[in-house]
Amino acid sequence: MSLSDGLSEHARRNRAHWDTTAAEYQERHGAFIGRPEPRWGIWQLPESELQILGDVSGNDVLELGCGAAQWSILLAQRGARPVGLDNSERQLEHARTAQAEAGVEFPLVHASAESVPLRDASFDVVFCDHGAFGWADPRLVMPEAARVLRPGGLLAFCITGPLASLCWHPETGFMEPVLHRDYFALHRLEDEQTVNFQLPYSEWLALFRDCGLEVERLVEPQPPPDATSTYWEPEELEWARRWPSECIWTARKR
């Protein structure tokens, strides 16, 4: 349902949640995800090992769901020209503070990734790390990502894996070795405050194809032996050692 401000119902709902919880989120997770080198996902695996984005020097880069822009700041320090977009103004306030502390400056855009207010074919890289592809409808986000990418541009995003979405208990909030959802019905996943999104693998592949994107890699990261996380409880670590907690997709615009 579209509203007068252009936001979908779920985008408005998620915006309210993040505007309310941004400070708490950054207090809890900011140091964990604000390390001096780019890292991916729940377990903060180094980009230097995964090589998802590669050398971004001189590239125009859009981060969809940038939060406090920890990733984009690190990319700016490595020669990229980033733009950070987030649905939450409170998160962007944290991003502006982080920019000032790091001594870097780049545009920050307050908008939903379902309707990106930026020109066609204006970026070499579009990416997110548990950002817009999980917190907005991928059936709307991926066409927007493809639209703003230049031909040959890279789309990369890290999200919760489909199996993890199936095994997350909606009442306890913990991962369990039990399926709690219908795999073929995966799309809109909601609780009292927020709406998340997920798709079966076949629908992800069809969506890439329909948006003119060619999949290059699907990485299913495993936590390292010394893994810790501010996102998952220690007892959930054993789940992630047996089954994929996350997926990192990369694709090129044809």
Percent of sequence in beta strands = 15-25%
| Count of alpha/pi helices | 9
Instruction: Just give the CATH class.
Output: Alpha Beta
Order of helices and strands: HEEHEHEHEEHHEHEEHEHE
Helix and strand content put the structural class at: alpha/beta
Gyration radius over CA: 17 Å
Shape: globular
Spell out the CATH superfamily.
Vaccinia Virus protein VP39
At CATH level 3, the topology is: Rossmann fold
User: Unreliable stretches, pLDDT < 50, 5 or more residues?
Assistant: none
Q: Return the CATH architecture.
A: 3-Layer(aba) Sandwich
Q: How helix-rich are the residues, as a percent range?
A: 25-40%
Largest sheet at a glance? 7 strands, mixed
**Assembly state of the chains shown:** single chain
Domains, number: 1
Distance between the termini: 31 Å
Q: Secondary-structure map with pairings?
A:
Layout: H1 9-33, E1 39-40, E2 45-46, H2 47-50, E3 60-64, H3 70-77, E4 81-86, H4 89-102, E5 108-110, E6 123-129, H5 132-135, H6 138-148, E7 149-160, H7 162-167, E8 188-190, E9 195-197, H8 201-210, E10 213-219, H9 237-242, E11 246-253
Parallel strand pairs: 3-4, 3-6, 4-5, 6-7
Antiparallel strand pairs: 1-2, 7-11, 8-9, 10-11
